[in-house]
Amino acid sequence: MKSLLLFNFWGPEMFVIIFAILLLFGGKKIPELMRGIGKGIREFNTARSTIEQEIKEGIRESDRKKIEDNKEQPTTEG
């Protein structure tokens, strides 16, 4: 039984897809299309890393504030 994976294209299916892309966009437009896709991926990765850095900095700041709050509170012993 064949696997029902999405994007499981091999052999003739791949050639049909490549041929359709060439017909739709033409040989001259494909490099522009690939550049656009590459630029979009780069922008996405930049935005993702910026968000990751902001989240990590927020966590560090929160941890620092908790430590400072614990130092400022006087200990009460019974």
Description:
The protein is mainly alpha-helical and 78 residues long. The chain has a domain at 30-63. The chain is built from one helix and no strands. The protein is rod-shaped and about 80 Å long.
Taking Cα atoms only, what radius of gyration do you get, to the nearest Å? 27 Å
- Given the helix and strand composition, which structural class is it? mainly alpha
Shape: rod-shaped
Number of strands: 0
- Give the topology string: H per helix, E per strand: H
Low-confidence spans: pLDDT under 50, at least 5 residues? none
Q: Give the percentage of residues in beta strands.
A: under 5%
Separate helix tally:
1
Brief descriptors of the model:
mainly alpha, 1 helix, 78 residues, 0% strand
Can you describe this structure in just a few lines?
The chain has a domain at 30-63. The protein is mainly alpha-helical and 78 residues long.
Lay out the secondary structure.
Layout: H1 12-72
